[in-house]
From TrEMBL, chain A:
The keyword Flavoprotein applies. InterPro entries: DHS-like_NAD/FAD-binding_dom, ETF_a/b_N, ETF_a/FixB, ETF_alpha_N, ETF_asu_C, ETF_asu_C_CS, Rossmann-like_a/b/a_fold. It comes from the Bacteria. PANTHER family: ELECTRON TRANSFER FLAVOPROTEIN ALPHA, ELECTRON TRANSFER FLAVOPROTEIN SUBUNIT ALPHA, MITOCHONDRIAL. This is Electron transfer flavoprotein subunit alpha/FixB family protein.
From TrEMBL, chain B:
Residues 29-219 form the Electron transfer flavoprotein alpha/beta-subunit N-terminal domain. Gene3D superfamilies: HUPs (3.40.50.620). It comes from Thermatribacter velox. Pfam families: ETF. InterPro entries: ETF_a/b_N, ETF_b, ETF_beta_N, Rossmann-like_a/b/a_fold. Keywords: Electron transport, Transport. This is Electron transfer flavoprotein subunit beta/FixA family protein. It comes from the Bacteria. SMART domains: ETF.
């Protein structure tokens, strides 16, 4: 008899909704499961059961959904959520645990890994099963994106966080699965006085956007930045920045792309007035398409651009805005 | 915290890292080759030290630095002292080399426990070499403490701390009492450079060295052998794309080329 092999995806919820990144993880789990023929489990925590939402997890690839219910999940506090996830994880004994490399995932996964006395590989960009030993093969960028490391884990469960935006979720509404509600009414939070979430509405989230338009030191002033924002809006893009733009106070730190900022993997990355220092590349070189605008033809950014436009940023953006508007007129007719 | 009006004990963990871009990999072990590479304090650890110092100045108390690494890491402990720590402890032992995040966190938690208890333990959000961001949360788990990651600001109000952390959609503000662990991201706070006096003090301060034996750590649990994960292989990333570069053309021509690029890929 073959042992049942389980891959558990740790689901992330925000205000009662399952995050898209969790569906991405379900797809990764399914791809792996095809090689080991086991089961894909989805474990999530919510304050209130929403069956429709739980069924979505099945449609996106879960065979079984385990939902822990407790008020604590509304607070977005990984260490407290971890306490509620530990008992079901210990009972389910998954061979592999996956979670998204989000601010939440990158906090709760290491917390759980230490509690489970096992290894964890951060920010994987690809996962596989070794056909020889059946172990999880974890591939991740390291040393500022200069190398790719292949990592394996001796202990069980084998745990990995996976970068968002790399694996588009796969929806199949005909899928069937099982849902189990696990209530836990323990009050875990005597030490906590308050948790408040401030949503930044005017800013599209960098790591969740299909298109990212980033500005660098070549965006010299507010008026150039306004043009760039206009372009971002037209392209339905998030606005990113190089560290220099942040340092100059023209952008906020959460917008910084790069080694000490965020890693993005959008379909299109448009770098405007960015030289392409290795620390910046570390955060965006995984983008599917890269377009660069820079007046210096020797700028290193052109080496990794699919399309490079040499010239003044302001002039080129102004033209792009005009040209794109033309299209809008045509299609409106 | 037991009583804030007395002393707040703050531990800050710092790491020595190679200047990025200069890093080399040992092809056999897949770990960082340190010899001949310029080394520096992990940039986000400086942010951690800044926040720790602000807290110390606000509530009083002591601030102690810990680092695990080769003997050369003594330098980053001196940096930490110059940035406001009163003492520095260096965990250095060849038997601990090549520990992964689990083993490293285990060693650090054992050390912190030995010199604790702490009200606040502060880490940089991640080190620019390993780049995992896992050590802070793992230490918190080993010590059974709450952890708040991606912290950019901390304000003290009486006995409670107001912690501001980044999340994908904006910010989260948490009010909590110590003890807790923080992992700090680069915030808005202005970096205050050490004065000459700070630097002299740091230079003269003895650094306490600790090895596995002193810490009572079973070496089977740490180092390359004791780490649950291992690097099987590493490959250099070659980033070159055969792109088209347009130059000496009118902005309009380039704008049209960009539009075509978008249309061909279904992005418009
Ligand atoms: C430890 C460490 C971590 C770091 N982390 C990050 C990070 O996370 N993210 C990051 O971005 N950087 C990071 N850096 C900094 C990085 O090394 C570079 O300094 C930075 O990326 C440069 O930003 P930039 O390209 O905007 O500016 P510059 O290098 O100054 O380049 C500006 C570019 O704009 C072009 N330009 C100027 N005027 C115009 C114009 N009118 N039209 C068109 N083009 C124009 C110029 O030709 C030039 O190529 C880090 C550095 C260190 C040491």
């Amino acid at each position: 008899m073959r042992l049942e092999r389980k891959i558990l995806v740790l689901g992330e919820t925000f205000q009662g909704k399952i995050e898209t990144t969790s569906f991405e993880m379900l797809r990764v789990a399914q791809d792996l499961n095809q090689k080991i023929g086991g089961e894909v489990l989805f474990l999530l925590g919510t304050t209130q059961v929403n069956t429709e939402e739980l069924e979505r997890a099945i449609h996106y690839g879960a065979d079984r959904v385990y939902c822990v219910v407790n008020d604590i999940f509304g607070m977005l506090l990984p260490h407290l959520s971890a306490k509620l996830f530990l008992p079901p994880i210990k009972e389910l004994k998954p061979e592999i645990i996956l979670g998204a490399a989000t601010s939440w995932g990158r906090t709760i996964l290491p917390y759980l890994a230490a509690k489970l006395h096992t290894g964890l590989t951060a920010d994987c960009t690809s996962l596989d099963i070794d056909p020889e030993d059946g172990r999880l093969v974890q591939i991740r960028p390291a040393i500022g994106g200069n190398i790719m490391a292949t990592i394996k884990t001796r202990t069980l469960p084998q745990m990995a966080s996976v970068r968002p935006n790399l694996f588009p979720p796969r929806l199949d509404t005909s899928r069937q699965g099982e849902i189990k509600i696990l209530k836990d009414t323990t009050n875990y939070n005597p030490e906590l006085l308050k948790s408040e979430i401030v949503i930044q509405k005017d800013q599209k989230e960098l790591t969740a956007s299909k298109v990212v338009v980033s500005g660098g030191a070549g965006i010299k002033n507010k008026s150039n930045l306004e043009l760039l924002s206009k372009l971002a809006e037209k392209l339905n893009a998030a606005l990113g920045a190089s560290r220099k733009l942040v340092e100059r106070g023209l952008a906020n730190y959460p917008q910084q792309v790069g080694l000490s900022g965020k890693t993005v993997n959008p379909t299109l990355y448009l770098a405007v007035g960015i030289s392409g220092a290795i620390q910046h590349l570390a955060g965006m070189q995984g983008s599917q398409w890269i377009v660069a605008i820079n007046r210096d033809p020797e700028a290193p950014i052109f080496q990794i651009a699919d399309l490079g436009l040499v010239g003044d940023a302001r002039e080129i953006i102004t033209s792009i805005l005009e040209v794109i508007d033309e299209k809008t007129h045509e299609s409106a007719v | 915290m037991q009583n804030l009006d007395k002393t707040c004990r703050i531990a800050v963990c710092v790491k020595q890292v190679p200047e990025i871009g200069e890093a080399r990999i040992n092809p056999e072990t897949g770990t960082l080759e340190r010899s001949g590479v310029p080394l520096t304090i992990n940039p986000l650890d400086v942010a951690a030290l800044q926040i720790a110092r602000l807290i110390k100045e606000e509530v009083g108390g002591e601030m102690v630095a810990f680092s695990m690494g080769p003997i050369s890491s003594e330098r980053v402990l001196r940096d930490a002292i110059a940035w406001g720590c009163q003492r520095g402890y260096l965990i250095s032992d060849p038997r601990l080399a090549a520990s992964d995040t689990y083993a490293t966190s285990y060693i650090l938690s054992k050390t912190l426990q030995k010199f604790g208890p702490w009200d606040i333990i502060v880490f940089g959000e991640r080190a620019i070499d390993g780049d995992t961001g896992q050590v802070g949360p793992e230490v918190a788990a080993f010590l059974n403490l709450p952890v708040f990651s991606y912290v950019t600001e901390v304000a003290v109000e009486k006995e409670t701390f107001s912690i501001k952390r980044m999340i994908e959609r904006g910010w989260q503000i948490i009010k909590v009492r110590p003890p807790f662990v923080l992992t700090v991201s680069r915030g808005k706070s202005v970096v205050r450079l050490p004065t000459l006096k700070d630097k002299i003090r740091a230079h003269e301060m003895p650094i306490v060295k600790l090895d596995a034996t002193a810490l009572g750590i079973a070496t089977s649990r740490v180092g390359l052998e004791g780490s649950p994960t291992w690097v099987q292989k590493v490959e250099k990333v070659q980033v070159t794309r055969k792109g088209t570069v347009l130059r000496d053309q009118s902005p309009k021509t380039m704008a049209l080329a960009f539009k075509k690029f978008l249309e061909e890929r279904g992005l418009l």
